[in-house]
Amino acid sequence: MSYTQEEKIEFIEKLKARTKKFALDILKFYQAMPKKGEYIIIGNQILRAATSVASNYRASCRARSQAEFFSKISIVVEEADESLFWLEVIFEGKLMPKEETLLLLNEAKEITSIMATARKNIN
Fold first, then answer.
1. Between helices 98-120 and 37-60, what is the axis angle to 10°?
2. Would you list the DSSP string of 23-66?
């Protein structure tokens, strides 16, 4: 399927907004976490990974070459998958409310899948 340049730009902008929203949602989630023990360690990890997804995706959109794009999008895939891992730990460890964690977990899965597909489709 072929897309117009306008459709590609629209998709990119929507994905930039989506990854930024994910980072902001994780920030709110982090702020609601207790500030003790394992919560501090896991909270710092999920916050770092989720904000990296958004910032590195944005950087990938400014890549000067296909090789640079591949490198940047690979970082996005790694950080999205790490975000997913920490959300799984939070969910399975019952560290935060189930409903809120599940929403973020599903978003992390979708973002990871989208980014992995983007990397796979680089010609």
1. 30
2. HHHHHHHHHHS-SSHHHHHHHHHHHHHHHHHHHHHHHHTT-SSH
- Structural domains in the chain, CATH included, are 19-120 (1.20.1440.60)
How does pLDDT run across 10-53, given as a tens digit for each residue? 999 999 999 999 999 999 999 999 999 999 999 999 999 999 99
What phi and psi values does residue 11 have, to the nearest 5 degrees?
-60, -45
Burial class from Cβ neighbours inside 10 Å (0-12, 13-18, 19+) for residue 66 reads: exposed
Residue 87 main-chain phi, psi, to 5 deg: -65, -35
Longest dimension (CA), the chain: 51
CA distance 15 to 12: 5
